[in-house]
């Protein structure tokens, strides 16, 4: 029963390619919810998603997803999860609608439910006009949207989304965010990797940062910001535009000292104090700027 409520559990999980150790012993326990995995290029995000979704085996350690061992209970687990990868995996010889109907039926929806859900998703992702066209005629962005729609058609217990919004325009990104939020509200958990920190900030209950083979941070967006610390004093011009930023340690003493100095030099200047952004947290943790 200990594992019953855990969504994902890792014990000393390792994975390498040749001499390159990518995951160096990950330990983790995640409850159901929306989780975002961040990390610089090549950190091993896709490798971890592939292990959790049973596509790749780890070298050592254990991974349990929905209480099932990813190796021993592979077949069972595959019926409970869905995966959208970085590359569109829809069938180009079928139309958009046919692809979604096929996925819906595979996930056990009735023909009628699959048709209704397919029409709804095609509409939300602005593919309704191309619904009857062969996917081979779709642009890369349209294929990607269809691929995402296919993974959302049923309500699996857990959906893995590997960089789902890379290459999507703002409207499609927003449509996907709305879908993710709605699915999560209906009880589906989401594990997504992303290069966009705003995406993690907006969507995720919990954010994990993978760097150098280890999970170097794990918490809510505000916990990560608190942890990194350091508020910034922003100076504004008469139009409210930020003209200058002064980093501080975030302590009352440091803020007070700097504000006193500012007040003496420029008594009329307008100021606000802001917490670190997730970009600043990411930079501090990984030494790299996010995409
Ligand atoms: N099949 C493979 N064979 C050899 N090396 C691999 C293989 N798959 C991944 N790697 C290497 O493992 C490391 C992690 O790759 P991975 O794709 O998991 O990173 P990522 O964090 O998802 O990166 P990105 O943000 O660029 O997608 C990289 O150095 C990559 O070159």
Summarize the structure.
Helix content is 36%, strand content 26%. The protein is α/β, with parallel strands linked by helices and 291 residues long. The chain has a six-stranded mixed β-sheet, with helices on both faces.
Walk me through this protein's architecture:
Its main location: membrane. With 291 residues, this protein is α/β, with parallel strands linked by helices. Helices cover 36% and strands 26% of the residues. It contains 10 helices and 13 strands. It has helices at 45-52, 74-78, 96-106, 111-124, 140-152, 170-185, 197-203, 221-228, 252-265, 278-286, and strands spanning 8-17, 20-30, 34-38, 60-65, 68-69, 81-84, 158-162, 189-193, 206-211, 214-219, 232-236, 242-247, 270-274. The strands form 3 sheets. A 6-stranded mixed sheet has the order 6-7-8-3-9-10, with helices on both faces. The protein has a 4-stranded antiparallel sheet with strand order 2-1-4-5. It has a 3-stranded antiparallel sheet with strand order 12-11-13, with no helix packed on it. Helix 3 packs across helix 4 (111-124), helix 3 packs parallel to helix 5 and helix 8 (221-228) packs across helix 10 (278-286). The radius of gyration is 22 Å and the shape is globular. The chain starts with 7 loop residues before the first strand and ends in a 5-residue tail after the last helix. The mean pLDDT is 89. It binds adenosine-5'-triphosphate. The site of adenosine-5'-triphosphate has 10 residues, from helix 1.
């Amino acid at each position: 029963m200990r594992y019953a409520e855990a969504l994902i559990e890792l014990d000393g999980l390792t994975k390498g390619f040749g001499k390159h150790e990518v995951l160096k012993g990950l330990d983790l326990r995640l409850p159901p919810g929306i989780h975002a995995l961040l990390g610089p290029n090549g950190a091993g995000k896709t490798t971890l998603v592939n292990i959790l979704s049973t596509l790749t085996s780890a070298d050592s350690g254990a991974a349990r997803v929905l209480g099932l061992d990813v190796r021993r209970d592979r077949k069972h687990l595959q019926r409970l999860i869905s995966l959208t990868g970085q590359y569109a995996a829809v069938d180009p010889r079928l139309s958009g609608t046919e692809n979604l109907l096929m996925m819906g039926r595979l996930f056990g929806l009735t023909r009628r439910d699959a048709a209704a859900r397919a029409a709804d998703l095609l509409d939300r992702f602005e593919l309704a006009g191309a619904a009857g066209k062969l996917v081979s005629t779709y642009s890369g962005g349209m294929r990607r949207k269809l691929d995402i729609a296919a993974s959302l058609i049923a309500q699996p217990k857990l959906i893995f989304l590997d960089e789902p919004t890379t290459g999507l325009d703002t409207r499609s990104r927003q449509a996907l965010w709305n879908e993710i939020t709605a699915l999560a509200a209906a009880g589906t958990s989401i594990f997504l990797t992303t290069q966009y920190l705003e995406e993690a900030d907006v969507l995720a209950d919990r954010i994990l940062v993978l760097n150098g083979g280890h999970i170097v941070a794990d918490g809510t967006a505000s916990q990560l910001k608190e942890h990194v610390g350091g508020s910034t004093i922003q100076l504004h011009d008469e139009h409210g535009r930020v003209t200058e930023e002064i980093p501080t340690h975030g302590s009352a003493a440091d803020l007070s000292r700097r504000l006193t100095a500012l007040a003496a030099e420029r008594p009329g200047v307008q100021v606000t104090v802001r917490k670190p952004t997730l970009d600043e947290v990411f930079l501090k943790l990984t030494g790299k700027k996010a995409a």
